[in-house]
Write a structure and sequence with these properties.
single chain; 350 residues; alpha/beta; Rossmann fold; six-stranded parallel beta sheet
Length: 350
């Protein structure tokens, strides 16, 4: 499906079964609510999957990768060459996300949305390159209108490929030097927050680097003045190719009524773009973790999402989303495997 048809296919979560599902959870052999948010996760997954036996396998995670023109402004502690180097590390199985995906039996793929490098074919690499990096948002729009649409639809294509695995749940991560600047700019544009409120240290820039990053974002937003309600315009002006890919993938999965776990700041900004394009998308989203990057919180507030984990993570790659799958799986197993009071022969009251 193209972008228009995908958005039209997204439906809000059917809550007509919530009372039945919640009663089933409340009747498990435990005090009501004693497993905290795990109970709510199990209930949400049951509603999403339309089953009292929700599951998290098969699970898939896609890391969307691209370079950023704004990296030329010195907004990162690492050079742009790191983007293709890390993609090769992912494909070689040596990155943090590889470790976590192996640990939890998550099928990992890498989507090249716009890396400034020509990769050899690889079974885990999705060649969805729109162009070799976005443009410098400080001088011109990051993408043309046509490139923005193509990147979104390539994200939908990534979903269509993953859909062949019949996943029960999917997750998204990213790689791209300079992308925390693009993500912060997106969040500032959508929420009306000042660049200083949403900008963090990314790969580890110092105080002077952070002040420069804030100034770059302010100047870019002043140049483009995107409408805070127009996700497509925000994405075109100050976004990134991998962020567009994430947004398209999220829309595709939501149209198929598949739960999606967002990772940190950058993945959340992609989820925010998807939500601006289709608000019902948020019904199908989980926030995997609270990032050290402070801009994420404003985007999550706008989408009404609460992170599952808070571990001080700021790596990206999908690492927080992969770890959050453990909690989601626990919620599903409580719903599926835990005995009721009657099954266990446990009294419900004195």
């Amino acid at each position: 499906m193209n972008l228009k048809d995908t958005i039209a296919a997204i439906k809000p979560l059917d809550r007509s079964t919530e009372a039945i599902i919640r009663a089933a959870m409340d009747n498990k052999s435990k005090p009501r609510g004693s497993l905290g948010r795990l109970e709510e996760v199990g209930i949400r997954m049951s509603m999403m999957q339309g089953s009292l036996k929700p599951r998290t396998q098969p699970a898939s995670l896609v890391v969307f990768a691209a370079d950023h023109g704004v990296a030329a402004e010195g907004v990162s502690a690492f050079p742009a060459e790191v983007t293709p180097q890390m993609v090769l590390n992912f494909l070689g199985g040596g990155a943090a996300i590889n470790v976590l995906c192996r640990m939890q039996n998550i099928r990992l793929r890498i989507a090249d949305m716009g890396v400034n490098f020509d990769f050899a074919p690889h079974p885990d690499l999705l060649d969805l390159k729109v162009r070799k990096g976005s443009r410098n948002m400080l001088q011109e729009a990051a993408m043309t209108h046509e490139e923005t649409l193509q990147a979104l639809e390539n994200g939908i294509r990534a979903w269509n490929i993953v859909a062949g695995d019949s996943p029960a749940i999917v997750a998204v991560g990213e790689m791209g030097i300079g992308n925390s600047t693009a993500a912060a700019a997106i969040i500032a544009a959508a929420t009306g927050r000042d660049a200083a409120e949403v900008s963090g240290r990314g790969t580890g820039i110092d105080d002077a680097g952070l002040a420069h990053k804030v100034a770059v974002i302010r100047s870019a937003l002043a140049l483009h003045k995107p409408d805070p309600r127009d996700g497509l315009e925000i994405l075109r002006s100050v976004g990134g190719l991998e962020i567009a890919g994430i947004a398209g993938f999220v829309l595709g999965a939501a149209a198929a009524q598949i739960p999606i776990i967002l990772d940190g700041l950058i993945a959340t900004s992609g989820g925010l773009i998807a939500a601006l394009l289709c608000p019902a998308t948020t019904d199908w989203l989980f926030s995997g973790h609270r990032s050290v990057e402070k801009g994420q919180a404003f985007a999550l507030d706008l989408m009404g999402l609460e992170p599952l984990l808070d571990l001080g993570l700021r790596l990206g790659e999908g690492t927080g989303a992969a770890l959050a799958l453990t909690c989601i799986d626990a919620g599903c197993r409580i719903m599926t495997e835990m005995a009721s009071f009657a099954d266990a022969g446990v009294a419900t009251e004195l």
